[in-house]
Amino acid sequence: MELLLEDIKAKGLNNGYSYAEYRVLVSDLAEKGASTGPEQTEALSQYTQLNNSRMRRWDKTLKFTDEVVDKIKSVDQKVLWVVLSESWCGDASPALPVMHKFTEINPNISLSIILRDENLHIMDQFLTNGGRSIPKLIAVDVKENTVAATWGPRSEKATKLVEDYKSEYGKLTPEFKQDLQIFYNKDKGQSIIQDLLELLPLK
């Protein structure tokens, strides 16, 4: 795990995308009708275009309460969030703008986005129920040089919706995925905010 941690930090600090760089990447791919990753399909390119629009909307509409802002500002140690993602990932579009906002509020928190399919050796150490589910946030305590926590691919509330649907119907349908996006829109990022607060060393 020590070697893996060094690789996560190196990737996060030197080879990852900042949020602004990731937004440019996704926007450019959306314009070209392409996506990140080795597989290029019409579906993945359409998801990339959808996510580009969604992130643009989240960037404009996301709101944090004064209480949440104060909690985030109380973090006085360096935290590195390395997030595995891909441009086509529907669950990343509401999550990444929230993470970015945390870093804007407190520069002690830094965000670096790396692509899952280029970093499977990292992804495979942070599976969700055996799957390579993304986005996956790996929170590194820089001072202690440890993985302090992980999060993803969804908030606790969204995860419950997914698990309940799977247990009843066996798999996620396109209709459910649409319903999940409606949940994200109604929730306005608040469930993700609350989950991420629990990852932080708050005062």
From TrEMBL:
Domain of life, source organism: Bacteria
Identification of the protein by name: Thioredoxin
Protein's organism: Maribacter dokdonensis
